[in-house]
Amino acid sequence: MTPILHASDLAKEKRWADQIVEALITGDAEWLPVGGLKVLSIYTPSDTEPARGAAIILHGIGVHPDWPDVIHPLRTRLPEAGWATLSVQMPILPNEANGIDYLPLLPEVLPRIDAAIDFLQAQGLNNIVIIAHSLGTVMTSYYLNKQPTSEVRAFVGISMTEIETDNQMSNVAMLKNITIPVLDIYGSLDEEHVRDYSQQRQQSAMSANNPAYQQIVIKEANHFYNGKDDKLLEEIQGWLSSYPTTK
Question: What are the φ and ψ backbone dihedral angles of 222, each rounded to 5 degrees?
């Protein structure tokens, strides 16, 4: 097996992990085996039995799986609606890095998501969706383009970033190849690149003949959904409940 060369800032990952594990209240730290590493994830089981399914939650640029904006509210509250959550540390760079700097890290996304799927299936959870925010949506689209036959059954993209300098980092380009159900959700006060490419994302989904694509705008929500967590959760829960639970 070819070894994975890690471009992620592993020292930063460790600092985040040390802080998170020490302060963790809801959920349990789970260390996913990825190419010789142990990658931090946080598993929170469903409050209901049986669970409707499980959501892999992927954070945005440079942060961590318990980030207070978007990530923590989703990972801790979706279990109330019957969805177990597994929030995963994705590859990260120093704070000054921008989106395109993450291009060399994309190959590291695949084994992390695969490890998350393996973990959830070991818990008996096979109805698996990915919910991703910001740069995490690019990583998810990249994964679904590279692994179209994966066990992921739906994709919620929150504030889908558009990095147009490379098709491997363009949600518009990658949506053309995604045919599983997709919820494209963003705020009316979101980042300009998220709002400006909303129509192109719809067109890409149409070109993929994806009838299960839906786009929702949350009024007065910014990129981090400050003060809009309840509405974001409501829209995601409603959409997830719109297709049948499968075991």
Answer: -95, -170
Domain count, the chain: 1
Mean pLDDT of the chain, nearest integer = 94
CA–CA gap between residue 61 and residue 135 (Å, rounded): 5
Residue 246 lies in a domain: no
Q: What is the pLDDT of residues 13-52, one digit of tens each?
A: 999 999 999 999 999 999 999 988 999 999 999 999 999 9
Nearest 5 degrees, angle CA 47-CA 110-CA 21? 45
162-181 in b/e form (b: 16+ CB < 10 A) is: bbeeeeebbbbbbbbebbbb
Q: Domain residues for 176?
A: 10-240
CATH number at residue 228: 3.40.50.1820
Residue 218 in any domain: the answer is yes
Beta-bridge partners for 133:
158
Tokens of 226: 């400050």
Q: Is 123 exposed, middle or buried (0-12, 13-18, 19+ CB in 10 A)?
A: middle
CB 231 within 8 A of CB 201: no
pLDDT confidence of residue 1: 38
Q: How far apart are CA 117 and CA 181, in angstroms?
A: 18
Contact 112, 147 (CB under 8 A): no
Only one residue has tokens 């060399």, namely: 104
